[in-house]
Every structure is written in C-alpha cells, then in structure tokens.
Amino acid sequence: MGGGAAGRRHGARRGGAMTPRAALRDPKQDRSRATRQRLLEAAVACLAEHGWARSTVAVVAERAGVSRGAAQHHFPTREDLFTAAVQHVAEERSAALRALLSHERGEGREQREPGGPGRVAEVVEALVELYTGPLFRAALQLWVVASYEEQLGARVAALEARIGRETHRMAVEALGADESVPGVRESVQGFLDMARGLGLANLLTDDRARRDRVVAQWARILDDVLRAPS
Amino acid sequence: MGGGAAGRRHGARRGGAMTPRAALRDPKQDRSRATRQRLLEAAVACLAEHGWARSTVAVVAERAGVSRGAAQHHFPTREDLFTAAVQHVAEERSAALRALLSHERGEGREQREPGGPGRVAEVVEALVELYTGPLFRAALQLWVVASYEEQLGARVAALEARIGRETHRMAVEALGADESVPGVRESVQGFLDMARGLGLANLLTDDRARRDRVVAQWARILDDVLRAPS
Fold first, then answer.
1. Name one GO molecular function term (chains A, B) (predicted).
2. ipTM summary value
C-alpha cells in the first residue's frame, strides 16, 4: 500500500485519456498537472526518507526531474510545497482506504457480511498496514515539524483532524460497527490509536513479527467487543 | 509527570547531601555533574519544544545558563549531547514509571491487589499519561530524527528497544498480568502501542477530552481480557 501505487490509481481515475472530459483538455495544462503531481510525490517520498531538514525545494525538484524554476513556479515557498504535499498525503491515504473498502467488498467476498467471521481480522490488518508504509512516515515527519513550525502548525492540525474523522468513518463502515451501542465509538477510536502507535514502533526497526502477533490478538479482542450485546 | 519533576526526584535520590557517599564527594565534581544535568534537561526541553533543527549546542547552553565552552567540554558534538539526552529521557521515563509503581502500592492502597477493581483503570490512566507529556514529545523528536540521521539511528534504536522492554515489564507487573496465559503478553503490548498512538494524537492539538473517553473504554476492555479465563 505504497504512496506510488495509490497515486497512480488516483491519477488514472481522474485523468483517463478515454474520458470525454480528458479529450477537451489543454495538453499544456495536462503537462503542468503532471509536473505538479510529480513534485508532490517527490516531496512526500523525500520527507519520508530524509526528514524535513533535508527536504528542500531544490532537492525535491531534482528528485522529480523538474527544473528548480518550474518547481518554484508551482510552489513559491518551501511551506507551499510541503503544505500541498500534506494535502497530497491526505488524498493518498483516503484513496488507499477507499481502495481497501472496495477490495474488501469485491469479487468472491460478497458472503463476508460486516461483522462476519474473519472480516474484522481482515479489516484490522489492512488498516494497520496503512500506518506502516511511506505515507505514514511522511505524515509523521510533517506532524512532528508542524508541532513547532508555526507556518505549518494550524494547517496541518486542521488537515489531520479531517483525515482522522475520515479514517474513523471508514473504519466504522468497514468493521460494520454500530456506533449507537455505548462504547463502540471509543473502541474503534482506541484501535486506530493502536494502529498509529504500531506505525511509530516500526519507525526505527522492522517491527513486523511483533506487530503481527499484537494485531492478531487485538483483532480477536475487537471482534468480541463489536459482537457483544452491550 | 513532567521531565523536571522526575529529574528532581532522580537527582535527589542520587545526590542527597546527607548520604555518607555525598560527604566524600569532591565539590568540583558535584558542580560538573550539576552542569551536565542542567545541559541534559535543557536539551530534552529544547527538543520537545523546538524540534531537532533548532536545537543546537549553543541554544541548549544558553537555555541551561552554561557557557558554550563548558557545554562543549561536556559534549564535544551535537550528536554527543543529544545521544546523552536520549539516555537521559530514558532514565527519566524509567524513574517516572518506578515512581508510579511505588505510588500505586503506597499508603492507603494496599487493599488494591493487582487485578482488583479499579486497579487496571488506574494503571492504564497513569501509563497513558507517560506518553502525553514533554518526555514523550522529546523522545518523538529523537525517534523521527534518528529515522534518517545515521549517527543517531543505531544508538537510538537500541535505547528505544531497551526502554520498550522495560516499559512492558513494568506494565505487566503493575497490571498484575499473567503472561503465561496465551494472548496476555500481546494484549499488554497492544495497549502500550495504543498509549503511544494517543501520545501522537496529542502532538498538534489538546486531545484530552477524546483521550479520556478512549482510555476509559479500553481500560474496561483490558480489565475483561486480563480477568478472562483463557
């Protein structure tokens, strides 16, 4: 569930050459959009791998194969570039979650009703996966920088609140959780906090073996909590 | 459960003027130790508030009220200072956890057996609290920088692994969890991952109201899991 794959799906959906809308497009505008998209993806990758201090507009431009002038045309300041990249990360995460939901409901899985056997474990594993890839690493760098960089702080906080709400809504839907039952809302939230913490634990070392055991256990616990008559 | 308070307790325990060992001490060495301690505490506070990029040796020295020369005598490089500060953060966290455990077992609470009513909720709240203060904010900055700074990476990863093991051991003890029961070990680990994720969610906004509801619900869940005959 890497940023690149999600970005390609996203781009393909919006800019497919066979759609009537695309046929009316200005090729110059298309090239400009493609350049912008490459810069945003490079900014996210750069941030995930090298952190804020080493992610300058010049470094991102070089990585994207774009001239520094063209990069500055699209994003006059470093803050502009990385704020737009936060937005990009947010859209990538939403697209990845939407893809997960449609996949989970796709061919050969219709019998698995929300709450059916194995469904909770599948959804839990897929949601945790979202917090262990490059998208989460980039978002983490931005959260940490936004905690002391005023120019980023308010915008990133607002974005993160929106992403948090959307992730929660998608998790509730995918898990088939009934939030009218007391405690269910907080159970799902706590599980998403756990997924975030597992992402953090994976930052410095490959934590997969431990994570798999924790996720298997907590999928069982969450399954019990969501099925229990309260 | 701030760094300062834990540091003072820690310092008092080791350097109390009335102990026979202190009476044998060289006053010059004591001053040197005090300077070093001030630098470490300033480095942690600086990191928590301003992030890595703005936390230079000069900034930390000024904050500690120490000359730049004295700071460089103790810590020749920036990496030396902040690696030692990581160690300091680790000791602070251990001291805070030990204080929590002895407090929980202190006066008027003897009746609360591990696993007794209310005990799990109390321990869960106190453990989550550890991840929402300045110590966690400083550690988070270090984790994130260590993810791409080679000089810090291996040392911070080793330290974090050690702290993780110690936190887990203390949580098991405080919760009265029986790890010979299948799943109990992973339940406690997942709960600590949740606490870490809650700390992260508190980075950009004051998340206390939501966190309190999540913690109350997950304390109930963990209590059920730990009491259940497996």
1. DNA-binding transcription factor activity
2. 0.80
